[in-house]
Design brief:
Oligomer: single chain
Helix content: over 70%
Largest sheet: none
CATH superfamily of one domain: Tetratricopeptide repeat domain
Radius of gyration: 39 Å
CATH architecture of one domain: Alpha Horseshoe
Strand content: under 5%
Distance between the termini: 144 Å
Mean pLDDT: 92
Number of helices: 46
Number of strands: 0
CATH topology of one domain: Serine Threonine Protein Phosphatase 5, Tetratricopeptide repeat
Structural class: mainly alpha
């Protein structure tokens, strides 16, 4: 056979080449544009990019070439580069409708609504401004800004012109649902599907709406149609399986998942969703053994599927088989060395080690990951969390900043960085970082609420209120946000604003006792006792054994001598919950006031039996016995309570006070010494121990201990504690130091006989007899009872 002569083809290519070479720049640009468009239409975006870049090499200012390159880069997933190209197009031609519209869409996707509107206003009259995309975006911005009716009006007008526009239909359905018209939303979607039955996204949204309305079977039918048409729709298949399982069609659910799992095995490496969904289903329905056996079988068929191997480790973790999980992760690290799965296995292993408290071992794994890839998000996040737990906030800050290099608007990382700055004592940096997080997510009500909590921790309730007001504006149906706002307003004593917010909370949660209790607290703060009582009683009508309103109501009624009514409230509370220790305790205090001693004793005993570690019932019981003349029994009961309450400081100080009053000073001091040794950081205990020791000259504490206590107390805001510190100085040979502490106290509290007495004694010890005489005279002239009164009189006579 005669071979074909290749020369005609060669000459044809040569001629084309020569023609191209001889043509001008405009012709070459047109040729590359044409070829780029052809490749784009064939979805060969790599070759399309080359052609459009060729256009720009010839003419860097070619607007359409740059615009088409931007579109191509988007198709290749290079959104950041595409945005830069769109911006360049707008820089070259400020009224380029296509670039302006696409940038507006990207701004909207990033939740930058102000920027979206600004770009839309710049689009000139023409095809883009009259397009469905333009009108849809205007409606979508209105919807995102909670301008429900304008959004509905726009989208309905859009649907009148474009009845088969899927995006407009979806937006309209979501707006109808938000407008409490779910039936209208369902009807709209059903009408759309009659015209376009293959629009699977619309069908999936319709299924979700039908589920919300309780029409599970119709939802199942729609999901089944999607799976039949698109068997590769993994998420829909999994949702359908869950619905089958939820309606006790367990066999159908398992069969659907198994079918998907088998199909998935023939697809590319890394697709494991169906197989893992089957494993989860088996675990939930048949237990760990069935799931593990199935998963091991899958791994034997596809040992290269790292997701399956790691899932087996996670399965063992859930079963608390930690050592087996570790072995699986360690094997995976070796099997998948130098592959992305190695980092995943190390991250899983590190997380498990953290849960076991083995932080150094976890850090070793994280370092191995970051040595290979310093930008690994999971490893950096975990290492930062560990650093914060170890108070190494600077290291955590460095890791969070490293994460932000690749994603500067990551609001999750920004939030964590802001909180770390706060923990590191950098409130200004914390505020700035929170601000950046809110710029990234300006309409995230939850993020604003978190910022409010951080501001409260930084002692800025006004800033917290501002953030919560914005959060409530964005999400005014969220009871938790409204409650937080009310509580901040109450803490600032903004009673009028708090009332308004609590009224909103009552509308949102009419069956909750909390808003009535909070409003009662507002009324009580404004001395509106009757109004407060009514609110507390309304709260109790909803929750009869709720502790806070019960306490407040009982105390108000007791103050009005309405003991019978108060007792009724405790009776109702105990009928609702017989193990309510606080109700028993309140009942005991009321019965004590009514001098019904045996009943009061029984109530206190019942309260302490329910909550043996709570000190108040023991104190109430002992006080009742003491008032009844049973002093010895009361003291013994408090001594018995010490073990039950783990030497509670309130029990200890009360017992010591009673022993001192009964003349048993050595016993009292021994109790206080025990209390101090158990809780040396308690200022109340340290103060009482030192004062009792010095006053009675019993000296159970050496001067070193007393001086340590003085150091604790001298900087306190409590003047009584500062007085004790001065008294210690006077009794340990430093009367001048005592005088320096006491003079400001006496100036601030000129009517305190005890402060004057201590200053007078300190002056005497310092040799200042005239000053001592003056202060002791003033102390006695006040005619107050204080420790050392008799001694003051004797010393004054000597002077």
């Amino acid at each position: 056979m005669k071979k074909p002569n290749p020369r005609p083809v060669y000459f044809l290519m040569l001629i084309v080449s020569l023609l191209t070479g001889c043509s001008g720049p405009e012709d070459r640009v047109a040729l590359h544009l044409s070829k780029g468009d052809a490749f784009y239409a064939e979805q060969d975006f790599q070759k399309a990019r080359v052609e459009f870049k060729n256009v720009l090499q010839i003419d860097p200012n070619h607007v359409e070439g740059r615009f088409r390159l931007a579109e191509t880069l988007e198709k290749l997933g290079e959104t950041s580069n595409a945005v830069n190209q769109y911006k360049s197009v707008i820089g070259l031609q400020g009224d380029h409708g296509g670039a302006l519209l696409r940038m507006a869409e990207l701004y909207f996707a990033a939740n930058h609504l102000e920027g979206t509107r600004e770009l839309l206003t710049k689009i000139p009259p023409g095809d883009e401004r009259s397009s469905a995309r333009y009108e849809f975006l205007l409606a979508a911005v209105d919807a995102r800004e909670d301008r429900l009716q304008p959004a509905l009006q726009r989208v309905e007008q859009l649907l009148a012109s474009y009845p088969t526009d899927g995006n407009a239909t979806l937006l309209a359905a979501s707006l109808y649902e938000k407008d409490q018209r779910p039936e209208t939303a369902v009807a709209l979607l059903q009408d759309f599907l009659r015209q376009q039955p293959d629009h699977h996204q619309i069908r999936a949204i319709l299924s979700g709406l039908l589920l919300k309305q309780g029409d599970t079977q119709s939802a199942i039918d729609h999901y089944r149609r999607i799976v039949e048409a698109k068997p590769e729709a993994t998420d829909i298949r999994i949702t359908l399986a869950r619905l089958y399982a939820g309606t006790e069609q367990v066999a159908a659910a398992e069969a659907l998942l198994r079918e998907g799992a088998v199909e998935e095995q023939t697809q590319e490496l890394g697709k494991t969703d169906m197989r893992l969904a089957l494993v989860t289903f088996l675990h939930d329905r048949k237990g760990f053994n069935h799931a593990a056996e199935e998963l091991q079988q899958m791994i034997s068929v596809a040992p290269e599927e790292a997701n399956l191997v790691l899932a087996l480790g996670e399965l063992h973790e859930r079963a608390d088989n930690r050592e087996q999980a570790k072995k699986i992760y360690l094997d995976a690290i070796e099997t998948f060395a130098l592959k992305p799965a190695e980092a995943s296995a190390r991250n899983r292993l590190a997380a498990l080690l953290v849960r076991e408290g083995k932080l150094e071992a976890a850090l070793t794994e994280l370092e191995a990951i970051l040595n290979a890839n310093g930008a690994d998000r999971a490893a950096l996040m975990m290492r930062a969390s560990i650093a914060n737990s170890q108070q190494r906030h600077g290291d955590a800050i460095a890791d969070y900043r490293a994460l932000l290099k690749d994603a500067p608007n990551d609001h999750v990382v920004l939030r964590l960085l802001a909180e770390t700055h706060r923990l590191n004592g950098e409130p200004l940096l914390a505020r700035d970082t929170w601000g950046n997080a809110l710029i990234a997510q300006p309409r995230d009500a939850g993020l604003k609420a978190e910022f409010a909590r951080a501001l409260l921790a930084m002692d800025d309730p006004n800033g917290a209120e501002h953030q919560l007001l914005q959060a409530v504006t964005l999400d005014n149906d969220n009871p938790a946000l409204v409650q937080s706002l009310a509580e901040v307003q109450i803490s600032q004593k903004k009673w009028s604003a708090a009332r308004e917010t609590l009224s909103q909370l009552m509308e949102l949660t009419p069956q909750s006792p909390l808003p009535f209790y909070l409003l009662g607290s507002v009324e009580l703060a404004e001395q509106q006792h009757q109004a407060a009582l009514e609110m507390f009683q309304q709260s109790l009508a909803i929750a009869p054994s709720a502790v806070e309103p019960l306490e407040r109501a009982v105390k108000l009624l007791a103050a009005q001598k309405e003991f019978a009514q108060a007792l009724t409230l405790t009776d109702v509370a105990l009928a609702d919950n017989a193990d309510n220790a606080i109700a028993h305790h309140l009942r005991g205090t009321l019965l004590q006031a009514l001098e019904r001693i045996p009943e009061a004793v029984a109530a206190f005993e019942q309260a302490s039996a329910i909550n043996p570690r709570w000190p108040l019932p023991y104190l109430g019981l002992a006080e009742t016995l003491r008032v009844n003349g049973e002093t010895q029994r009361a003291t013994v009961r408090l001594q018995q309570a010490l073990d039950a309450t783990d030497k509670n400081p309130l029990i200890l100080t009360t017992l010591a006070d009673w022993l001192e009053k009964d003349g048993r000073r050595s016993d009292a001091l021994a109790v206080m010494k025990t209390a101090y040794e158990a809780q040396p950081q308690s200022l109340v205990i340290a103060n009482n121990f030192a004062m009792m020791s010095i006053t009675h000259d019993l000296q159970p504490a050496d001067s070193t201990t007393l001086m340590a206590i003085a150091e604790q107390l001298r900087s306190s805001a409590n003047p009584a504690f500062v007085d004790t510190a001065a008294w210690i100085e006077a009794h340990t040979g430093s009367p001048e130091k005592a005088i320096a502490l006491l003079k400001p106290l006496v100036t601030a509290h000129p009517d305190s006989a005890e402060f004057l007495y201590h200053l007078g004694i300190s002056e005497k010890l310092a040799g200042n007899n005239q000053a001592a005489r003056e202060h002791l005279t003033r102390a006695l002239a006040l005619n107050q009872q204080f420790r050392g009164r008799d001694a003051a009189r004797e010393i004054l006579e000597q002077l």
